[in-house]
């Protein structure tokens, strides 16, 4: 069963690493724009 857990963790790590590569390095100011946009959208719903 340890091998199954290790496989799942390895798979999740691969997905996370791929997402980090695709996302790239984004400064905090860019995150702020995304969060503010989401907050406005959620408020309107």
Describe it:
The protein has 45 residues and is mostly helical. Helices cover 87% and strands 0% of the residues. It has helices at 2-23, 28-44. The longest helix is centred in the first third of the chain and has 22 residues, at 2-23. The radius of gyration is 17 Å and the shape is elongated.
Describe the secondary structure blueprint for this structure.
Elements: H1 2-23, H2 28-44
Give the total of beta strands.
0
Helix-and-strand structural type = mainly alpha
Residue-averaged pLDDT: 77
Largest β-sheet summary: none
CA distance, first residue to last residue: 44 Å
Q: Say what oligomer this is.
A: single chain
**How would you spell out the order of helices and strands?**
HH
Shape: elongated
Helix content: over 70%
Give unreliable regions as ranges: none
Number of helices: 2
Query: What proportion of the residues form beta strands (DSSP E)?
Result: under 5%
**Roughly how many Å is the radius of gyration?**
17 Å
């Amino acid at each position: 069963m340890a091998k199954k857990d290790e496989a799942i963790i390895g798979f999740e790590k691969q997905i996370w690493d791929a997402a980090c590569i695709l996302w790239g390095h984004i400064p905090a100011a860019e995150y702020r724009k995304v969060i503010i946009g989401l907050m406005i959208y959620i408020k309107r719903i």
